[in-house]
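Sample entry follows:

_____
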Amino acid sequence: MDDRWTTDRRPTDDRTTTDGRRLRLLRLLLLLLLLLLLLLLILLLLLLLLLLLLLLLLLLLLLRRLLLLLLLKLLLLLPLLLLLLPQLILLILLPLLLLLLLLLLLLLLLLLLLLLLLLLLLLLLLLLLLLLRLLLILLLLLLLLLLLLLLLLLLLLLLLLLLLLLLQ
C-alpha cells in the first residue's frame, strides 16, 4: 500500500518535536529575560525618582537660603540702591532666572519619568498578555533606553545648574 495517497496523516505538533520543545524553551527564556529587564528598568526609574526628589529638597533648601540672602542684601544695600540699580537687578534676577530654569527642568524631568513609567507599565502589561511580537518588544525597549538616556542627560544638566547656583 502506498502511503503517499492516504489522508490520515496528522501535522506534526511543535510541542512534540525536539525542535519545538527547544523553541518553546527559548521563547520562555526570552520572555523571562525581558521581564527581568523590565523589572531592572523599573528599579532604575524608582532610583532616579528618589534622586530627583532629593534634588528637589536640596533646591528648596537652597531657595530658602538664597531668598534670605537676597533680603539681607537688599536691606544692607538700600542706601546704594539708586546708584547700583542695574547691578542689583542683575544680582537678583540672575539667580531667580536660574532657579526658574531649574524648576522647569525638574518639572520636565518629572514628566519624563512619569512617561517612562507609563511606557514600562504598558510594555509589562503587553508582555504579560503576550500581544507583542519579539521585534516590537525590542523596539519598545530601545525606545525606553533612549528615554533613559535623555533622562540621564537632563539629570546631568540639572546637576550642572544646581552646581552653578551653589557656586554663585
User: Anything to note?
Assistant: The helical segments are 18-76, 85-129, 134-167.
